[in-house]
Amino acid sequence: MDLRKGIQEIDFADMNMAGLFGEGVNNAIEGLSQMAGREVKVVSMDIKKVQVKDIPDLFGGPEALIIAIYVEIFGKANANGHMVVVYKPEVAFGLVDLLLDQQSGSTTELNDMENSTLGEVGNIMGSFFLNYLSDTTGQRLKPSPPAVMMDMAGAVLDSTLANILAYSDETYIVDTVFGTKDRQVSGTFMIIPNPSLEVS
Amino acid sequence: MAVVFSETAAPEQELHVVGMGDLVVTDSPDAVLSCIGLGSCVAVCAYDKREKIGGMAHIVLPQNYGIPGKSEAKYADTAVPLLLNEMTKKGCIKRWLTIKIAGGAQMTLSPGLRDTFKTGERNLEQIMSMLRRENITPAAADTGGSIGRTVKMYVRTGQVTVKTAYGSAREI
């Protein structure tokens, strides 16, 4: 689905969550591009509505090791949503290499520097994403500082998933592949809104 | 003192994965009950060593904030009585039950991040208060911290093991 095209064709009033998120993610990658100081482009994007329970399975099962960058979204009332960017460890390491301008394969573990780099990815992507969402919906939205975690998929995601399970059994996830000319990084961008954030 | 427990690779074992908000009670001796990748969720394991009946609940949230028709096993305040009830229905006597709990971590740690939910902590609090109400003290617990856990219970022996992402399985 070509989102840029898709979003122009639809009426603003008809703008659905999926389209809104897609465009927000595009904006987030643009932020990443500015951060990296080179052109980072969205290669492909897939927006899916999924069962919350099945989410850990998308990353190789609840016991698979993943790296997640977590940002909480604050709106008018309390916490209004969550943004989670999930990478396979080797992919996240690749992203660190790309951003720190290192040779691909130099990063093999998550130390302070790598943690901080990925946290910055969360900051940039989070604020660019929210900028777009704020502009479009007129809501004032703020991101929390990012948390970078490396653990079992189920464990990393379950408090976030628990929060959404309290309201709904489904959510949106956005699979993105992005990269520069020579390197590609694929990750899953997950937006979990609380009902107050929903625009339908 | 933790005892390292090596898993016997018995092919006849039947693995029951207890998913989020699920509850399983079984008397099949070959059954292995497992909650995989627990973060803030908590696994409550109940075992009757006389009847060799095992039960496990994968609790997600402390309370149901008013959503009708949702699974009782998802919430600590309803899941604990449900687990004890199901165990009793299978023929257990409550006073012979051994309860072990694991999970309840706080995964999202970051300087300045507001812990809005503290889901793990609140889950544990609620579970402990439900158990107190039944006059039960957990025989073992491996809870808190900021680490993911996989919990397994071997119904034949009643052993409960906890494995973390970087460590090996150890019995609690």
Topology readout:
The complex is a heterodimer of chains A (200) and B (172).
Chain A: H1 3-9, H2 17-36, E1 41-51, H3 55-58, E2 65-74, E3 79-87, H4 89-99, H5 112-137, E4 142-143, E5 147-152, H6 153-165, E6 170-179, E7 184-193
Antiparallel strand pairs in A: 1-6, 2-3, 2-4, 2-5, 3-7, 6-7
Helix pairs in contact in A: 1-2, 2-5
Chain B: E1 3-4, E2 14-17, E3 23-26, E4 31-38, E5 42-48, E6 53-59, H1 76-89, E7 97-103, H2 119-133, E8 140-143, E9 149-154, E10 159-164, E11 170-171
Write up this protein.
In chain A, helix 1 (3-9) crosses helix 2 (17-36) and helix 2 (17-36) crosses helix 5. Mean pLDDT of chain A is 74; it is low at 1-15 and 196-200. In chain A, a hairpin with a 4-residue loop joins strand 6 and strand 7 (184-193). In chain A, strands 1, 2, 3, 4, 5, 6 and 7 form a seven-stranded antiparallel sheet that branches. Chain A is globular. The longest helix of chain A has 26 residues, at 112-137. Chain A is of the alpha+beta class and 200 residues long. Chain A is 40% helix and 29% strand. Chain A is built from six helices and seven strands. Chain A has a single domain, classed as Chemotaxis protein chec (3-Layer(aba) Sandwich). The mean pLDDT of chain B is 81. A six-stranded mixed sheet of chain B has the order 1-11-10-9-4-2, with no helix packed on it. In chain B, strands 3-6-5-7-8 form a five-stranded mixed sheet, with helices on one face. Helices cover 17% and strands 33% of the residues of chain B. Chain B contains two helices and eleven strands. In chain B, strand 5 and strand 6 (53-59) form a beta hairpin. Chain B is globular. With 172 residues, chain B is α+β, with helices and mostly antiparallel strands. Chain B starts with a strand and ends with a strand. Chain B has one domain (13-171): 60s Ribosomal Protein L30, Chain: A. Chain A binds chain B through residues 53, 56, 61-63, 65, 70, 72, 78-79, 119, 144-163, 165-167, and chain B through 19-21, 36-41, 60-61, 65, 67, 74, 105-114, 116-117, 119-120, 147-150, 165.
